[in-house]
Amino acid sequence: AATACAPANVIGGSVTGSTRVSPGGLPTFRDPASMRSPEQQPESVQQPVQKPAEVPRALRALRALRVVKQAPVEQTQEGPRPPLEAHASFDGLGVGFAGAPSPQPLRNPSDNALAVGPHHVFQIVNSRYAVFSKKGARYDTTGSVLLGSAATNTIFQGLGGQCEARNNGDAVVKYDQLADRWLVVMPIFRRPANDSTGPFSICYAVSVGPDPLGPYYKYEFLRPLFPDYPRLAVWPDGYYVGTSTGDDVIEKHACVVDRARMLQGLSATEQCVIVKDVNFLNPADIDGWGLPPAGAPNLIFATGGTQLKKIFNDDGIYYWSFHVDWDDPSKTKLTGPTKIAVAPYHYLCDGQLTSCVSQPDTTRSLDAQGDKLMNRVVYRRMGNVESIVALHSVNSSRQRGGVRWYEFRLDRARKPQLYQQGTYAPDGFYRWMGSIGIDADGNIAMGYSFGGNPKYPGQRFAARLASDPPGTLGYRESILAEGEATQRNTLRWEDYTALAMDPSDDCTFWYVGDYIKKGAASYSTRIGAFRVPTCVGKGQR
To answer: Using an 8 Å Cβ cutoff, are 250 and 276 in contact?
Structure first.
């Protein structure tokens, strides 16, 4: 692997060689590159991608304002329909977890990740994971603990190296409904100082079959740059991941690994393009079974502005087209950014690692991560319509926080065009740190954190029918978890929540986020499931 990267480099993956079987019988991979001397390390492959232009600057003097007028797209009242009911709701990892307790206090922030398959619910909180039952053909109940809590790096037992040895957190999970497999991605934030194979790694575990309890094919790819805040997406030609060099550097990484080979447990490679002067990159993640045209590039999205340059406003969402060539990496191309004009917005709390969400009984406010599109950006094909939905946290006209959401549709040239947008801010409280999805019928739902003095922070969700007026959520807000206390130990709140689609019906949304129980010293997480009752869906089984 390359020891240093410049913009537009493609970094060769570090996993090569043949399968070996651990004593426990699990297929595993070991990086033979780690046994080479520095002189023997494979060279990086230069690829002819132009360095992207700097993201356009903020709109004139609006950079100095904390509130942007958003009346044309801001929904200031709840929708007319009754709220949707959660047909499943249970505590996940954290205070109130019904499984084996963690031997150490859970790390902050929670970094919630969630995936749902035909029979299982898989949750990761920072550095630990658990697997729960899902009611259906295999289990009689939802929410029974089948595994956990367990340290996330235990998934990589038998691989050796840093993926097995370290548990730095920030792991994410995804159910690949196209292959009926599970995927866990875990970054390694530091390696031994005397290790000549590279300073960082990123680890992949792909289940051998449909069971999330294992076994897994396991991979470690060396990284020369810090792989923070991974954003994971399934695409036909690869597993795409966006990562960041760090909070004090305006530099991101668009990466992809060879999905076809990893599903077979074969040696695989990773290719990355380094992108400077952009916000966090979110690759489009497929929900449902409608595929993009063969060979279509993945689309990657980001907000505008730059927190480190104190540019907190913008009037665009930006995208890149990422085409990967596994036979000839020199032909891999990342093209962009291209601006999609949207209503002006201002980052909630001026971005990340700040605080403005007030709480009762304390002067400590919570972080909003307002500078970035949140997990996930979702792609869905419905017949000839290709939709992409995304959201982020913005200031509202009431000087609180709202959830700005978008639906983009691809034109005949497969370029995203704004189809509708809205800012959900129906009252004077904060809504932030959301996650969005779109079901098989085109109905859109989102879960998000809710709070602001005098309300304790908790979790809610809302939805719209595909036929609702553009930019509005027609269903009234539902409460998933009512906050019972203030978070006092840190300003960090979650960093992200997660909404996943149920493959069994392609209609049910599963959502997870944090809340604080009365008298608790740390967070709880609540996992809930809900659906729009009119959704027909075309589920897997």
So the answer is: yes
Q: What pLDDT does 194 receive?
A: 62
Residue partners of 194: CB distance under 8 A and separation at least 6: none
Give the C-alpha separation, 511 to 516, whole Å. 17
Q: In angstroms, how far is CA 11 from the centroid of its own chain? A: 23
The total of other beta-carbon atoms located within 10 Å of residue 8's CB is: 18
What is the token pair recorded at 332?
A: 């891999």
Contact yes or no for 247/23 (Cβ under 8 A) = no
For residue 298, the SS3 value is strand
Q: Which tens digit of pLDDT belongs to each residue from 155-213?
A: 999 999 999 999 999 999 999 999 999 999 999 987 666 665 668 999 999 999 999 99
Residues of the chain whose pLDDT is less than 70? 1-71, 191-198, 539-541
162 phi-psi bin (left φ>0, alpha ψ -120 to 50, beta other)? alpha
User: Which amino acid is located at 267 in the chain?
Assistant: S
Distance CA 411, CA 400 (A): 35
Instruction: Name every residue whose Cβ is closer than 8 Å to that of residue 297 and which is 6 or more positions away in sequence.
Output: 321, 322, 323, 324, 335
- What is the rounded distance in angstroms from the CA atom of residue 219 to the CA atom of residue 7? 25
CA–CA separation, 393 vs 493, rounded Å? 13
Number of other CB atoms surrounding residue 267 within 10 Å:
17
First to last CA, the chain: 42
Nearest to 415 by CA among 333, 296, 264: 296
Angstrom distance (rounded) from CA 338 to CA 388: 15
Could you tell me how far CA 92 lies from the centroid of its own chain? 18
Q: Which residues pair with 409 in a beta bridge?
A: 387, 417
Residues in the chain: 541
C-alpha separations of 480 from 216, 294, 447, 530 in Å: 33, 39, 9, 10
